[in-house]
Design a protein that fits this description.
By secondary structure, the protein is mainly α. It has a domain of 81 residues. Helices cover 41% and strands 0% of the residues. It is elongated and about 90 Å long. The N and C termini lie far apart (95 Å).
Length: 141
């Protein structure tokens, strides 16, 4: 009886070892590093849609409002601008955005900004900290 249990364990070990060794084979024909094929260029078509005229009407989200202000970079990253860029790939017309004059959200003089509302990067709070709030208070006074 003990002999049969040993034989079953031995055959199970052989089966497992065979599967393990078979899974480690190299199936690459060239043997070298594989390079992906060059992607085929995508041809965008509008189908039956007419993208020659596109008007975006909406609220602050449509305008690109972010960081508590409306500024150039926010407008450039707005979803209507992204849509118009993709529509132009399918034969869409020109899309004009009435951009803000500066990247500060309009709060400032031409040479000296009054408010620094724009958050830049993930470490903006750490960088500015209390000193940024103090600067804001001093400039406001």
């Amino acid at each position: 009886m003990k002999y049969l249990v040993r034989m079953k364990n031995f055959y199970a070990f052989l089966l497992f070892s065979g599967l393990f060794l078979a899974s480690c084979s190299n199936d690459d024909a060239s043997g070298g590093p594989m390079t992906p094929p060059d992607p085929e260029p995508v041809e965008y078509t509008s189908g039956s849609a007419d993208f020659s005229n596109y008007v975006a009407v909406g609220n602050s989200l449509t305008a690109g409002y972010s960081d508590a202000a409306l500024f150039f970079d926010g407008q450039d990253a707005s979803f209507p601008n992204m849509l118009a860029t993709n529509f132009s790939l399918a034969g869409g017309g020109e899309f004009n955005i009435p951009y803000m004059a500066d990247n500060l959200g309009g709060a400032g003089q031409p040479t000296y900004p009054v408010l620094c509302l724009r958050l830049s990067g993930t470490n903006a709070r750490k960088r500015n900290g209390i000193y940024g709030d103090l600067q804001l208070l001093i400039r406001a006074i």
